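Handoff note, outgoing to incoming analyst
You'll be picking up this chain. Sequence as last confirmed:
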Amino acid sequence: MITAYIPYQNIRFFSKLITDYVGENKKLRPFYHNFPSLLEFKKQIEEKALDFTEEKRHILVSSLKEQYAEVKTTPKVLKNIELLSKSNTFTITTGHQLSLFTGHLYFIFKIISVINTAKQLAEKYPDKHFVPVYWMATEDHDFEEINHFHFNNRTICWNSDQTGATGNFATDTLEAVFQTFDKAIGLGKNANTLRTLFHDSYLKNKDLASATRYLVNALFETYGVVVIDGNDKALKRQFIPYISDDLLHSVAHTEVTKSIKALQTVNSSYPVQVNPREVNMFYLTEGGRHRLVRSADGFEVHGTDICFSEEGILEELRTYPERFSPNVILRPLYQEVILPNLAYIGGGGEIAYWLELKGFFNKEKVPFPILMLRNSAMLILQRQAEKLQKLQLSVEDLFLKPEDLKNKKVRQLSEFPIDFTPEKELLHRQFEHLYELAKRTDVTFENAVKAQEVKQLKGLDKLEKRLLKAQKRKFAEELEQTIFLQNELFPNGALQERFANFTDFYLMKGEELIPELIKDFNPFDFRFVVIQ
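Most recent structure output, in case you need it:
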């Protein structure tokens, strides 16, 4: 049940770039194509239909069938894969790293957002089909970002010395992690469901890509979610012309650099999310993913002895496209080249770097997708809601910085105002007479009056702070309870969705958890939701 909607503009965890985007700031209009509204999708559908060929659909369906060859899934997923061969079928995509047991809550929120977007589009455009897609970032090599999740205030971590693309990581060392989770999760029906899900995902699949596909399929197969692995030779073969462009002409570097400068001109506080490189490709080796860099003689694979002439690397690309791995700048283009995609759904950081890419897409003549901010939420337990009520706090209060929250709470509890504004106004009025007197004398007296006013105002500020400090000591117990509740809902000072794992809530809600979140989330409502 939703208990509150909070505009993103009122939440300090969202950057100005993102709040300006969802607020449709006109100055950002050059950096995206169509805005995420149901009506705007009509233009996006028409454009993508003209761009995406029958041959591309055939290759996509063939690759997906191969990837799903050993996956037991629902007829709905299989039907969605088949539907992708039809010219009136389109995808709504989100992507994420292969986080252990989904990692943070927002992994789940992302996929729910694509499910709901596809559902609403199907209702709006009944003559079309819309397939929710989860793009597995199997080629990502940042293992430390994905090797853990938090359960019941403890960290479950997978230690491994494997290197390279994480999708290829063998899962045979996860037995110890399972044993740790098994002991921590306790007893009961929901605990057993989670125990089996972890075991079957990670101990019955040989690598992390297969394990993650199994896990996402188990959680979302009912809704027809199709999982795609871009680390696929047939799919990458379609991307050869764009890789060649990047290697020989640095198109991405030139165009994205222009966009970053333009964004900074709009507002210098906008974050530069990603900087392009001269070459935006990695080279995959056995156990390694290394940057490709230009050299005097052609190209080098950074950190190895491998090097290519210009002609040699193009031959390597034609023969082994699967060895070339796009970085964060080129991956969005790769995705849009191989999918009949209409929209990409991501978090604030992702939308920020996508906003750097429109000029690059235009140069490459690839339709730029609609950018949608994923749903964002905080899940509050019954006891936490009761505590909130007992403390006479609103949910919005908890989003304040801890010190601001304490100050607000003290002022609420205090039997007298901790605000010397009336005294300061009285002081100003008293000094008005002295200023009138100063005008009849000389400048030195006027300066003395100013100095005395500043001194006395500072004195009042100090007294106000001392009074606030004294009241904090008086209400220390209530403040401790307030901050304890805030820390529960904002672990490590971060949004809950960026720390907690779905398991904490699945233990209580079981199979109802995901359907309830699907019911509560609306991908076209750009507000933060609080769910009890």
